[in-house]
Write a structure and sequence with these properties.
Length: about 240
């Protein structure tokens, strides 16, 4: 990642207050569906979507429904509300990835929102032979939402948090995130890592039109032919330069 957890300041109170716009972003998502339909279709491979802290599969339903309409075999995490790594949670996620992989006979893409993105990255490190790519939405790698530092995380769950997975990984983040410091939600640029900036709240990122389009664009790449996100043309008006 691009910054040390010790140097990151939490979002301002103004940004925290502006998290209420997540409701309007859901309305924008519904209104943008005709345009979002122009996003590339997928190849039918399985996609597992993991929710954020205290959220459940209900929170990811708009994103999952949209990805299903694009031809993917989409699944939620099936564990109710995400209250962190309680006993059995990690094993249940590992079992679900194995189940989806075996059922479809194809590698799985993992999409994780906030804490769900941390899970996705760690699972990909544990099971790279089963994971096609990872996409995170507003996920802060250096610290768990519970306040646990990266060096306190059980190394048996994928190892050090700041180390990216050995598969293509995209971090979608927002500088106006009112929950997580945006600097800690970026990936270091590399041959298999990238960051995409959107102008979104934290609580609305999973259904923000620009974020949803970016997820669909990343998932539509052919397996083994991953390339970084193309910001040329009209996309430069929607997606700011993340390294400005």
């Amino acid at each position: 990642m691009t910054a040390s957890a010790q140097t990151l300041r939490p979002p301002s109170r103004t940004l925290m207050f502006l998290e209420g716009r997540a409701i309007h972003e859901l309305g924008a998502f519904l209104g943008a569906l005709p345009l979002l339909s122009l996003a590339p279709r997928g190849d039918g491979h399985p996609v597992l979507v993991l929710p954020g802290l205290v959220a459940s599969d209900v929170s990811t339903r708009p994103l999952r429904s949209f990805l299903t309409s694009k031809g993917y075999a989409v699944a939620g995490w099936r564990q109710g509300r995400n209250y962190g790594l309680r006993p059995g949670v990690q094993d249940a996620m590992v079992d679900l990835i194995q189940e989806l992989n075996d059922t479809h006979g194809r590698k799985i893409s993992l999409v994780g929102w906030s804490l769900g993105g941390l899970y996705a990255r760690q699972l990909a490190k544990m099971m790279p032979e089963r994971v096609r790519q990872v996409i995170t939405l507003g996920s802060r790698v250096y610290e768990w939402a519970s306040g646990q530092r990266s060096d306190e995380v059980d190394p048996r769950f994928g190892g050090e948090l700041a180390v990216p997975p050995p598969v293509p990984t995209t971090a979608i983040f927002s500088r106006t995130d009112g929950v997580c410091a945006w600097q800690g939600c970026m990936e270091k640029s590399g041959t298999q890592t990238e960051s995409i900036e959107v102008e979104s709240s934290h609580c609305g990122m999973g259904h923000h039109p620009a974020a949803v389009y970016a997820v669909a664009d990343r998932l539509a790449q052919k397996e083994g032919q991953w390339q970084t996100f193309d910001r040329s043309g009209w996309r430069s008006l929607v997606y700011p330069n993340p390294h400005r």
